Amino acid sequence: MALERTFSIIKPDATERNLTGAVNAKIEEAGLRIVAQKRIQMTRGQAETFYAVHKERPFFGELVDFMISAPVVVQVLEGENAITKYRDVMGATNPEQAAEGTIRKAFAKSIGENSVHGSDAAETAAMEIAQFFSGNEIVG
Ligand code: RTP
Ligand code: MG
């Protein structure tokens, strides 16, 4: 299979606890390559756009408030089957259901403050990457 790219966010609960390197170690151990990365303070507008698919959900306001509560690290990850592979490495949304060895099992605090985001499909990966990175910032 050809190389694929996915979009990742190391969320505020993880950056606040200085876990950026620990999360990146799990990403790299899984065979994914970090081909773009920057630490940013998301604006409310950026967070609302990013999670627009969830805007009717009861947790939307809480989710946006959380995503702007501290800096995040946005990333592009590259590898074979990167989208599915990263979802596997992340573990289930709710850390209580996340498998042993996954990022969320190791680090997530709750279903809301769950340490990482990863794209769920090729189309969303392309959209999410384009929201935060220009082409010349990604070096594969
Ligand atoms: P993500 O989009 O962040 O990678 O997470 P996901 O696919 O595993 O989960 P999704 O259903 O897309 O939910 C997006 C994020 O919203 C927060 N959430 N809070 N309080 C709640 O019940 C609740 N449910 C979801 C989480 O931060 C989740 O990652
Ligand atoms: Mg999702």
Automatic annotation (TrEMBL):
**A GO CC term assigned to this protein in UniProt:** cytoplasm
Which UniProt keywords are listed?
A: ATP-binding, Cytoplasm, Kinase, Magnesium, Metal-binding, Nucleotide metabolism, Nucleotide-binding, Phosphoprotein, Transferase
Report the locations given in the UniProt record: Cytoplasm
GO process annotations (BP): CTP biosynthetic process; GTP biosynthetic process; UTP biosynthetic process
> Matching InterPro entries, A to Z?
NDK-like_dom (IPR034907), NDK-like_dom_sf (IPR036850), Nucleoside_diP_kinase (IPR001564)
Q: What is its EC number?
A: 2.7.4.6
Under the heading Gene3D superfamilies, the entry gives:
Nucleoside diphosphate kinase-like domain
Entry-linked CDD domains: NDPk_I (cd04413)
Q: Where is the Nucleoside diphosphate kinase-like domain?
A: 3-140
Tell me the SMART domains matching this sequence.
Answer: NDK (SM00562)
Write out the catalytic residues in the record.
H117
Q: Which cofactor does it need?
A: Mg(2+)
Q: Which reaction does it catalyse?
A: a ribonucleoside 5'-diphosphate + ATP = a ribonucleoside 5'-triphosphate + ADP; a 2'-deoxyribonucleoside 5'-diphosphate + ATP = a 2'-deoxyribonucleoside 5'-triphosphate + ADP
Q: Which GO terms describe its molecular function?
A: ATP binding; metal ion binding; nucleoside diphosphate kinase activity
- Cross-referenced Pfam families: NDK
- Function comment: Major role in the synthesis of nucleoside triphosphates other than ATP. The ATP gamma phosphate is transferred to the NDP beta phosphate via a ping-pong mechanism, using a phosphorylated active-site intermediate.
Indicate the family of this protein: Belongs to the NDK family.
PANTHER family, sorted: NUCLEOSIDE DIPHOSPHATE KINASE, NUCLEOSIDE DIPHOSPHATE KINASE DDB_G0292928-RELATED
* Binding partners and assembly: Homotetramer.
In Swiss-Prot or TrEMBL terms, this protein is called: Nucleoside diphosphate kinase
Which source organism? Answer: Thalassobaculum litoreum DSM 18839
